[in-house]
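Summary: Need help interpreting a holo structure output

Steps to reproduce:
1. Submit the protein chain below together with the SMILES for NAP.
2. Request a joint structure prediction with the ligand placed.
3. Inspect the structure token block that comes back.

Expected: a single structure record containing both the chain and the bound molecule.
Actual: see attached output.

Input attached:
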Amino acid sequence: MTKTALVTGASAGFGQAIVKRLVSEGYQVIGAARRMEKLQALQEEVGEDLFFPLQMDITDTASVDQALASLPKPWQTIDILVNNAGLALGLEPAYEADFTDWMTMINTNIVGLVYLTCQILPDMVKRDTGLIINLGSTAGTVPYPGANVYGASKAFVKQFSLNLRADLAGKHIRVSNIEPGLCEGTEFSNVRFKGDDDRVDKLYQGARAIQPKDIAETVAWIASQPAHVNINRIEIMPVSQTFGPQPIYRDEN
Ligand SMILES: NC(=O)c1ccc[n+]([C@@H]2O[C@H](COP(=O)([O-])OP(=O)(O)OC[C@H]3O[C@@H](n4cnc5c(N)ncnc54)[C@H](OP(=O)(O)O)[C@@H]3O)[C@@H](O)[C@H]2O)c1
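--- attached output ---
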């Protein structure tokens, strides 16, 4: 039987690449996002048979409910949930950050991800099968200046993924957290820097960053593991990115 995947954030970046990859593997894929025109363009590219565009705003529980209720029967049983939709807003220190940006990150990266999981997981448990793949970040482990709420939201995603594993003990449902470092070819930094394209270009210049297809490859690899294998966490960085020293700022005496 054809398996069904639901990929959030399918209108851009990783989500789009994950959709294409899973469709090429023979999954039927529901792609969710707010921008329906982008999902429809993706549908034109991958075809109607294995792709279903689903408009939803994951920060709005009513929108998620409505979207899930609108799925036609053959698309209602979700075998793989890829919780990919998410964003960073700003890179200012916490004392200069915009509280509205913080709430948007919390409502998208945490509340949205948790709400969708809460809606999909019970049916997986009833069928005793399923796979949830969350998109965390190295920012959920490695602190850096300006990551404040974004990094904390991804630390939540990491621990939520591990705690799901604890709750699912004895059941045949798998949970993985993919934790990428610097990636280009997505809208992530354009969103973070609010359209400051020069800043975006400078960030990626010469960095040979991770590409969306690398993340799609990782998703496909996790999904292709034998049913008894769970990839708990997988951290991926470009070779150009590594760890910094722990600086000590000294007071002038
Ligand atoms: N790129 C990186 O460097 C990087 C590194 C580590 C982790 N990540 C994580 O990977 C995931 C994907 O990032 P990306 O780089 O592919 O970013 P992206 O190109 O900006 O794509 C983000 C996707 O999330 C969707 N989205 C945002 N808010 C939403 C909402 N309220 N409701 C529904 N969908 C929403 C967007 O669709 P609409 O705008 O159409 O709704 C878009 O499809 C994110 O969770 C991000 O934190 C990215």
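--- end attachment ---

Reviewer comment: Helices lie at 13-24, 36-46, 61-69, 99-127, 148-167, 188-192, 197-204, 212-223. The chain has a mean pLDDT of 97.
Status: needs-info
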